[in-house]
Design brief:
Keywords: Iron, Iron-sulfur, Metal-binding, S-adenosyl-L-methionine. This protein is of the alpha/beta class. It contains 21 helices and 25 strands.
C-alpha cells in the first residue's frame, strides 16, 4: 500500500543520462556494440523523457572525469547503464562514480547482469538503486515517469530495488543500504518488435564506432554495423542464458530493411553483423532475407544451427554475400552434446561443417571443454577431433558457469560456487564443474594450451609490410595454403583479432608473429622490467602462449603470468606458474601487461577496482614495435575520494521516498 506524505515534492521533469560502459582502453580500439542500451535510449527519447547519452568508449580520459563533466553540464538526475555479468567492474565503475559526483543521483542498471541473478547482482553492485529485469525499453520509460511523479515503484513491472532502513552515518553508502530487495512482477516480453524504436546509434557516436570495428566480427575491414532481426532463442543450452527471455520473436523484414536503408544512407557500411542469438531458423524467412540483402552488395554474418544446413541454403547464402556463418558446436562427443542439450550430433556437425567449408563461407564456431558430464575420455574425444580439423580454425575454450545458466545453478547448488556475490565481483572465473579431478582438468588444459600453438594452420608464406606499435596493428601479405591466393590484409590488430580470412576462398588463419615482432616484444618487456621490477602478464590466451613459448625475457623471475581461469593456474608453464589475480596484491605488483586485448576493458576495470595500487597497465599490442614509450602516463585511481560524504539532504529525500510507499 502506498502511504501519502504531506510534504511529498511536486512533479518534476528529470534529466537522464544513459552511459555505455567502457569496454576498451582507447578510442581507436574495436568492440562489440551493446545494442540494448541504444534501444532503451531510443524508447526513452520517443516517450518524451529528457535523455542525454555518453559512450565511454569514444572518449579518452578517466571515467570519473568524463561522467562528472557530463552530469554537471546536463544537470543529470538519473544515470542508467548496464551490460553482462562479466562486465561487472565496468558497470560498477559507472554507478559508483556517479554517486561520488552527486549522491542525490538515482542509479539504474539493466542487462544480463541484473536479469540473470537480480538479488546477487544488486548486492554486488552496491551503488545501484534500481535494477531492470528483462527487456528494458518499457520498464525504463515507466520507471522514469514514476520517479518524476513520485509514484509507486511496485506498480512498475520488471524492477528490483532496495527498500527499508537507511544509513545514519554521513559517509557515502549505497542508496537504501542494509535493507531488503523488492522485486515487482515479471514484465511480459515484447511480442511486436516492430513497435520498438530503432536503436539510438547517433546518441552513442555510431560514426566513431564504425571506424574502429576492424576485426571485431572476423571481417577484414572496418565499418561493420550490428543489427538484429529477432530476439532470443528457443533452445535451452545448459551454458547459455537469454537476457530477453526464451521466447523467440522476429521483427518484420520490411522494418529491418527500412532501418538498414537509413544507416546505409547515413553511414559508410561495408559489412553487416546480425547480432541475433539465432538467425537462420526459419528457411522461408531466410530466403526472403537473402533475396533482399544481396542488392546492398555488403558482406554479412549470422548465427545458424548445424543440423539445418543444406546445399540450397548455402547457395542462397553464398549468392547474397554471406561471409561468415556462426555455429554452436561446443563438443565432438555426443554424450556431452546431449548433456549440454544442444539438440545436434557430431555426425550432423561434421557433415554441415564440411559443406560450409567447401562452399567458401568462413566458419565461426568453437569447442567448449568442461561440461558437468565431461570426463577425461569425452574431453579427449573432442581434443582428437579438433586436432584432425585444423582447417576450421576453431578455438578451444573452457566452460564458464555464467549467472543464469543451468550450469551456474548447478555450481551454486553443489557448493562449487560458495559465494555468488564474490563470484560476480571476481569476474565470473572459470571453475571445474566437470567429472574430471582438478588435477586431470589442469593437465588437460595445459595439453590444450600447448597444442593450440602447434596446431595453428599456417599461411604458405607471409610478410609483414608495416608494424604500427601505437595501434598494435600490422599490414600483412600472405599466401593461402588452401587455394594459393595472394592476400593483403591492412591494419590487422595482433593478439586481438581472432583470424584473417582469405579473400578468395574464405579460409581462416591466425595472424602470425614473425621474428622481428618477437624480438621487439622481448626488448620492450625487458625495458619494463628494468624500470618497474615485478610485472604481471594477465591473460594466457593462445596468442600469449605463442609469445611465451619462444621468449626468454618472459621467463624471467620478475614475470608473473596471470589468468582468472582456475584450470590454467598450474606449475611448469614454460618453467613458470600461472597465478590467480590476487598475486598482484600478494607480491605488490604495480605494473601489469594485458596479453588478452580482447578483454582489456574487463581486465583493466578489474585492476582499477580490486588492485588500486597498480600504477601501470600496458597493452601487449603496443609492444610489437621499436618505439614503445614505456615511460608513458601512470594509471590513475578510478575515484578521487573514496570517503566522499553523502549529503544529509539526500538522506532526508530518500527517507521521504520510502515513507511515501
Amino acid at each position: 500500500m502506498t502511504v501519502q506524505t504531506p510534504d511529498k515534492p511536486s512533479t518534476k521533469t528529470l534529466n537522464y543520462l544513459l552511459v555505455m560502459p567502457r569496454l576498451v582502453r582507447s578510442v581507436k580500439d574495436s568492440y562489440g556494440f551493446p545494442l540494448g542500451i541504444a534501444y532503451v535510449s531510443a524508447s526513452m527519447k520517443k516517450a518524451g523523457l529528457n535523455v542525454s547519452t555518453l559512450n565511454l568508449n569514444q572518449s579518452d580520459g578517466k571515467v570519473y572525469d568524463l561522467l562528472k563533466e557530463k552530469i554537471e553540464a546536463d544537470q543529470i538526475d538519473v544515470v542508467l547503464t548496464g551490460g553482462l555479468s562479466a562486465e561487472y567492474c565496468m558497470i560498477r565503475t559507472v554507478i559508483e562514480s556517479a554517486k561520488h559526483i552527486n549522491p542525490k543521483i538515482y542509479t539504474v542498471v539493466g542487462g544480463g547482469i541484473i536479469t540473470s541473478d537480480p538479488e546477487t547482482a544488486m548486492e554486488a553492485l552496491e551503488y545501484a538503486d534500481f535494477g531492470v529485469i528483462g527487456e528494458g525499453e518499457l520498464t525504463s520509460v515507466e520507471l522514469g515517469r514514476t520517479l518524476e511523479n513520485w509514484g509507486d515503484f511496485g506498480s512498475v513491472d520488471g524492477l528490483i530495488y532496495k527498500s527499508g532502513s537507511f544509513p545514519s552515518s554521513t559517509e557515502l553508502k549505497p542508496l537504501f543500504a542494509e535493507s531488503k530487495f523488492v522485486r515487482t512482477k515479471d514484465r511480459k516480453v515484447i511480442d511486436d518488435l516492430d513497435s520498438i524504436p530503432w536503436p539510438d546509434y547517433e546518441g552513442f557516436e555510431m560514426e566513431k564506432y564504425l571506424a574502429a570495428t576492424l576485426g571485431t566480427f572476423g571481417f577484414n575491414g572496418t565499418n561493420t554495423l550490428s543489427m538484429v532481426t529477432c530476439r532470443s532463442c528457443p533452445f535451452g543450452c545448459t551454458f547459455c542464458f537469454h537476457t530477453v527471455g526464451r521466447k523467440h520473436r522476429t521483427r518484420s523484414l520490411d522494418d529491418f530493411f527500412k532501418e538498414l536503408d537509413y544507416y546505409v544512407s547515413k553511414y559508410k557500411i561495408n559489412s553487416l553483423a546480425l547480432s541475433d542469438d539465432l538467425f537462420g531458423i526459419q528457411f522461408e524467412r531466410l530466403k526472403e532475407f537473402c533475396e533482399r540483402i544481396k542488392d546492398y552488395n555488403i558482406s554479412w554474418l549470422g548465427a545458424f544451427r548445424l543440423n539445418q544446413v543444406n546445399p540450397e541454403m548455402l547457395a542462397l547464402l553464398k549468392e547474397s554475400n554471406c561471409a561468415i556463418m556462426g555455429f554452436g558446436l561446443e563438443s565432438a562427443d555426443n554424450r556431452i552434446l546431449k548433456s549440454m542439450k544442444k539438440g545436434i550430433t557430431i555426425e550432423q556437425a561434421e557433415e554441415s561443417l564440411k559443406m560450409v567449408y567447401d562452399s567458401g563461407i568462413s566458419i565461426s564456431a568453437g569447442l567448449i571443454i568442461g561440461d558437468i558430464e565431461e570426463t577425461l575420455e569425452t574431453a579427449n574425444v573432442s581434443f582428437q577431433w579438433w586436432k584432425e580439423h585444423p582447417e576450421y580454425c576453431l578455438p578451444v575454450r573452457l566452460i564458464t558457469p555464467y549467472p543464469g545458466a543451468m550450469i551456474y545453478h548447478y555450481a551454486c547448488n553443489t557448493g562449487l560456487i560458495k559465494d555468488k556475490v564474490q563470484y560476480l565481483r571476481d569476474g565470473c572465473p572459470q571453475i571445474n564443474i566437470s567429472k574430471m579431478t582438478d588435477k586431470e582438468f589442469q593437465d588437460f588444459t595445459r595439453q590444450i594450451m600447448e597444442a593450440a600453438v602447434e596446431g595453428i594452420l599456417p599461411l604458405s608464406s607471409f610478410e609483414m609490410s608495416k608494424i604500427d606499435d601505437e595501434s598494435g596493428c600490422i599490414d600483412l601479405n600472405g599466401t593461402c595454403s588452401k587455394c594459393g591466393h595472394e592476400n593483403q590484409w591492412e591494419k590487422v590488430r595482433l593478439f586481438k583479432i581472432t583470424f584473417v580470412s582469405c579473400h578468395q576462398c574464405g579460409q581462416q588463419f591466425f595472424p602470425p608473429l614473425n621474428a622481428d615482432i618477437r624480438q621487439n616484444i622481448d626488448r620492450n618487456v625487458q625495458k619494463i622490467i628494468d624500470r618497474y621490477g615485478k610485472v604481471g602478464v594477465w591473460g594466457m590466451t593462445i596468442h600469449a602462449i605463442d609469445v611465451f613459448s619462444t621468449s626468454d625475457v618472459l621467463k624471467a623471475q620478475e614475470i608473473y603470468p596471470i589468468d582468472i581461469c582456475s584450470s590454467k593456474q598450474h606449475d611448469n608453464f614454460f618453467g613458470k606458474q600461472i597465478h590467480a589475480p590476487h598475486i598482484i596484491a600478494q607480491e605488490d605488483i604495480q605494473t601489469v601487461i594485458i596479453s588478452a586485448p580482447n578483454h582489456i576493458g574487463y581486465i583493466e576495470s578489474q585492476i582499477e577496482t580490486n588492485y588500486r595500487h597498480v600504477t601501470k597497465v600496458i597493452d601487449i599490442s603496443n609492444l610489437i614495435g621499436t618505439s614503445f614509450d614505456f615511460l608513458g602516463p601512470e594509471l590513475p585511481q578510478m575515484l578521487p575520494n573514496p570517503n566522499h560524504v553523502l549529503h544529509l539532504e539526500q538522506q532526508a529525500l530518500l527517507r521521504g521516498r520510502a515513507e511515501s510507499r
